[in-house]
Specification:
The protein is of the alpha+beta class and 77 residues long. The chain has 2 helices and 4 strands, in the order αβββαβ. The strands form 2 sheets. A two-stranded antiparallel sheet has the order 1-2. The protein has a two-stranded parallel sheet with strand order 3-4. The two termini are 19 Å apart.
Amino acid sequence: MIFRNFSGGQSQKMMKDILDRINSYKFIYKDKPIKVTISSGISEMKKNLTLSEVLESADKNLYKAKIMGKIKWYMRS
């Protein structure tokens, strides 16, 4: 997802809100409850970075989040 005009902190809050909503929703598949999780990588667009660099950073952060498991988002400081 791309959040336009959001700071890194605002993006983290938005992703936490999305995670909380997913965690509170009861997903049903073939009449059985299933657990749904998400992982996300966040990167902030800065003036000295190209779009490719920002997307690459977000992609790397996504893989870090997947490795970390229980923490569903990650943002490099």
